[in-house]
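hey
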């Protein structure tokens, strides 16, 4: 052992130091948001350096607790390199930016190599070997592109040129996407951290569980609702599955749901949270910047697809809940699920405490249409005001110690600062790596090559190209958080759809965003399913199968963006709403066909499975087919089939009840 019980205070001090670093980092970020007094590139250099140090500090503590000498050495060396690189780039910022553009001293190339190795190492620690292999593969392609086959060949870069792209020209690691993370996304992740620190995530869980009392599948639906809300803020499918799944999955199992189904529901809900406005897992900010449109435009475009997702998943999960619970409602003592009890009055107060900052965020972005940075800053301020004042007023009215409550709230705020930094740091690090990957691709001309290759492989047929783009986007997005997955597919795949097949920009970008996010549910990686499987103690393939059945309409929805682009490009027009309703009806048809627990006209599999297939095909056509007449016809067919099916089920249930009543009468 590297430490004994007597060293516990040393670990406490180390944790306090990391928390202090996190607080200082957030103070610096808030200062920039308030004043914007330095250049964005210089701020991004300090941002990447500081969040990396916070992450390294946390990892060092874990390595110390695990008695890992090797990790302690590598993490300590990484911290020294990070501090040295950041300090050097700040000191020689003007020289590197304006005087020695494209050239550098030997020591600067050495510094750049060392720091990029740190980024690779931390990316590996945060996201595993698969992602590391992707980055290393891109680096090798950049260095040895002259040996690549066919149209993929390029002249190849020297190590010096590669390091200029990655570090020294302030692109790559410090490029445009990293700057968006530093100036836009970071504050929203602080908001997420403060919400968790002050207890908002528990409140969201309580709201979901209270709603569970009103429907038979309420426990499962509460998991969906709470996971979607929290997932939209955290920006990571895996992280959200871990945060909410640790609570919702055991609860679903306790009420009688199979472990595989519980894991599947949670993984789908956590994945879907990434597409829910107003935050959309932070991808909305990046999309607005890449397309040169307002953030509000992106959010408006995302509302109808999000409702289609939520409606279809709710439908499927309701079927799963009712089917596995035998149609019996489950009584839940909400307060028994939490460490601290909450009265109805306290519940309402907490709703106002956390609801006011969120309402302010929506008002500033949607009505006043301020910048994202300003909206985030005001929301943080409001979160502090309500986070502190509501409990202090309650303590004052209850004649309790205001000082004790204030100190407790300071602790909650500090935990929120650290929590926000822990959410932010891995995302900032992986984005730094992805930004470098994208810049290498762009320098080698690969986006244009992929565009031509996609056209060639598809034979100029749009459906072939769209399917290929969908598969490639899923593969490229595997294992990554939302923003990182979106950045890489937006750079490599979306331009091909726009340039070669004239797909509207918004439709193309929503297509690749949804496809990349679905990688979290798609085997063999399926990172959200992997995390849910571990919590549920279920079989991976069983859990993945359940997740795929529940989320099936969402695999179809991206194609609807291509063939019925008004769903995302029409604003709030009647055409958009009507097309969205038709697509929702198709999604419900798919969800019904794959998840309905009752009888499909006949128990024989030779009847059941063909009927399921008919529901699925009709649902797909209703969502995707470019002609409204055919789409409405498919919706009508789905409605008729469901009506006949439900009528038969009702008759069967009535006959069984009548038979039961007759037997009871005879016995009496």
């Amino acid at each position: 052992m590297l430490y004994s019980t007597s060293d516990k205070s040393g670990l406490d001090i180390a944790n306090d130091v990391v928390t202090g670093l996190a607080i200082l980092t957030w103070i610096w970020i808030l200062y920039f948001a308030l004043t914007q007094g330095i250049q964005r590139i210089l701020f991004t250099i300090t941002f990447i350096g500081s969040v990396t140090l916070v992450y390294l500090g946390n990892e060092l503590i874990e390595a110390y607790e695990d008695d890992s000498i090797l990790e302690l050495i590598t993490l300590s060396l990484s911290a020294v390199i990070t501090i040295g690189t950041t300090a050097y780039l700040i000191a020689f910022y003007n020289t590197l930016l304006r005087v020695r553009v494209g050239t550098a001293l030997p020591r600067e190339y050495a510094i750049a190599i060392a720091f990029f190795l740190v980024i690779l190492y931390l990316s590996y620690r945060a996201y595993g070997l698969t992602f590391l292999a992707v980055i290393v593969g891109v680096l090798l392609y950049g260095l040895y592109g002259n040996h690549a086959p066919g149209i993929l060949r390029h002249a190849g870069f020297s190590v010096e040129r590669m390091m200029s792209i990655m570090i020294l020209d302030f692109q790559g690691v410090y490029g445009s996407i990293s700057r968006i993370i530093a100036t836009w996304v970071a504050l929203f992740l602080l908001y997420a951290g403060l919400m968790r620190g002050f207890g908002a995530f528990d409140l969201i869980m309580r709201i979901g569980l209270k709603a569970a009392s009103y429907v038979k599948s309420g426990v499962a639906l509460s998991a969906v609702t709470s996971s979607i809300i929290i997932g939209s803020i955290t920006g990571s499918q895996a992280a959200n599955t871990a945060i909410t799944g640790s609570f919702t999955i055991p609860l679903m199992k306790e009420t009688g749901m199979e472990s595989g189904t519980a894991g599947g529901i949670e993984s789908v809900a956590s994945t879907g949270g990434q597409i829910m406005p107003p935050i959309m897992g932070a991808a909305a900010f990046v999309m607005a910047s890449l397309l040169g449109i307002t953030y509000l435009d992106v959010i408006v475009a995302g509302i109808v697809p999000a409702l289609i997702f939520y409606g279809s998943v709710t439908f499927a999960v309701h079927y799963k809940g009712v089917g596995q619970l035998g149609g019996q409602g489950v009584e839940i003592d909400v307060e028994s699920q939490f460490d601290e009890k909450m009265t109805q009055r306290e519940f309402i107060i907490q709703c106002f405490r956390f609801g006011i900052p969120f309402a302010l965020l929506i008002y500033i972005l949607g009505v006043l249409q301020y910048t994202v940075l300003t909206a985030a800053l005001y929301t943080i301020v409001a979160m502090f005001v309500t986070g502190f004042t509501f409990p202090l007023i309650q303590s004052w009215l209850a004649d309790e110690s205001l000082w004790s409550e204030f100190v407790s709230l300071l602790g909650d705020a500090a935990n929120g600062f650290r929590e926000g930094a822990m959410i932010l740091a891995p995302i900032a690090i992986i984005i730094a790596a992805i930004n470098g990957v994208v810049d290498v691709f762009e320098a080698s001309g690969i986006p244009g090559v992929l565009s031509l290759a996609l056209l060639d492989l598809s034979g100029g047929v749009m459906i072939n190209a769209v399917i290929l783009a969908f598969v490639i986007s899923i593969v490229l997005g595997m294992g990554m958080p939302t923003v990182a997955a979106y950045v890489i597919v937006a750079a490599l795949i979306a331009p091909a759809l726009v340039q070669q097949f004239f797909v509207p920009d918004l439709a193309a970008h929503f297509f690749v965003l949804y496809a990349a996010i679905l990688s979290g549910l798609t085997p063999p990686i399926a990172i959200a399913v992997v995390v849910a499987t571990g919590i549920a103690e279920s079989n991976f393939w069983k859990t993945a199968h359940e997740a795929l059945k529940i989320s099936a309409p969402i695999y179809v929805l991206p194609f609807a963006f291509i063939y019925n682009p008004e769903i995302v490009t029409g604003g709030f027009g009647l055409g958009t709403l009507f097309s969205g309703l038709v697509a929702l009806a198709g999604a419900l048809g798919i969800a019904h066909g794959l998840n309905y627990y009752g009888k499909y006209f006949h128990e024989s599999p030779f009847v059941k499975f063909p009927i399921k297939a008919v529901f699925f095909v009709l649902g797909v056509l209703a969502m995707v087919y470019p002609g409204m007449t055919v789409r409405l016809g498919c919706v009508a067919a789905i409605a008729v089939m469901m009506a006949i099916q439900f009528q038969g089920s009702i008759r069967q249930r009535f006959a069984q009840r009548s038979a039961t009543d007759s037997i009871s009468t005879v016995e009496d």
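The chain has a mean pLDDT of 85. DSSP finds 27 helices and no strands in the chain.
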